[in-house]
Each structure stands twice: as structure tokens, then as C-alpha cells.
Design brief:
- The chain is an all-alpha fold and 83 residues long.
- It has a domain of 51 residues.
- It has four helices and no strands.
- The longest helix is centred in the middle third of the chain and has 17 residues.
Length: 83
């Protein structure tokens, strides 16, 4: 059952959201509904389910204290795509 919902938003946000929805070939109502479904589901999940393979890896890697994940990722991607 669909029910009408009235929201008060800044006009520029509404225009931007309508443009985004049009570009995706969807209605703004559909996008908002799916967003609300997503955040509702996230709220009901108490814990992310971890697969057995990931569980088996837990504790097998100790990173150095000065490890910069973003820097290493950027370095790896640069090496991969600069070849």
C-alpha cells in the first residue's frame, strides 16, 4: 500500500535529486523508498555476518603502527595502471 509523504527540503537539493533520478531512469519516490528500506535493514542487523574464510584469517596479520592503508592502496593502484 502506497502512502503519500510530504518532505520539506532545500529547493536546490530537490532539483539535484530529481536530475539524479531522471539520469538513472527512476522516480525520486522510488529512490527515496529504497534508501529508507536500506537504512531500516541496517538498523535491524545487529552484526555483520563474517564468512568462515574471513574468520580463519582473523589475527593472522599484524600491521605496523605507522601503516597508511590509503597511501598503500594508491601506490598499488598506480603501479597496476601505470604499466
Amino acid at each position: 500500500m502506497s502512502t503519500k509523504l510530504t518532505l520539506t527540503l532545500d529547493q536546490s537539493i530537490i532539483e539535484s535529486a530529481k536530475s539524479y533520478a531522471k539520469g538513472k531512469g527512476r522516480s525520486l519516490s522510488d529512490i527515496v523508498e529504497n534508501y529508507l528500506k536500506t537504512i531500516s535493514r541496517e538498523q535491524t542487523k545487529s552484526e555483520i555476518e563474517i564468512t568462515p574464510v574471513v574468520k580463519s584469517l582473523r589475527g593472522s596479520f599484524k600491521d605496523p603502527g605507522d601503516f597508511d592503508y590509503k597511501k598503500e592502496l594508491a601506490k598499488g593502484l598506480a603501479e597496476k595502471y601505470m604499466k
